[in-house]
């Protein structure tokens, strides 16, 4: 996994960026009645994007 990240930095940065932007935009359009489960799912994706960004050198 780390070798893939080193060899494909642009793709890794793009993936990390999308994992941070798409959930943030998705949270804006989450309906109030489904806020609990869907918000947690968006938050988990956002955290995964941040973790990926930490592994990119």
What profile does the largest beta sheet have?
Answer: none
Order of helices and strands: HHH
Q: Report the sheet-strand fraction.
A: under 5%
By helix and strand content, what is the structural category?
A: mainly alpha
Can you put this structure into words, describing what you see?
The chain is mainly α. 82% of the residues lie in helices and 0% in strands. The chain contains three helices and no strands. Helix 2 runs antiparallel to helix 3. The radius of gyration is 13 Å and the shape is elongated.
Task: Produce the secondary structure layout.
Blueprint: H1 2-7, H2 9-28, H3 35-55
Helix pairs in contact: 2-3
Q: How would you sum up this structure in a few lines?
A:
With 57 residues, this protein is mostly helical. It contains 3 helices and no strands.
Task: Please tag this protein with its features.
single chain; 57 residues; mainly alpha; 82% helix
């Amino acid at each position: 996994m780390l070798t893939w990240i080193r060899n494909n930095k642009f793709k890794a940065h793009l993936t990390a960026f999308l994992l941070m932007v798409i959930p943030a935009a998705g949270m804006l359009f989450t309906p109030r009645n489904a806020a609990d489960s869907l918000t947690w799912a968006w938050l988990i994706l956002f955290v995964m994007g941040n973790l990926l960004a930490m592994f990119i050198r």
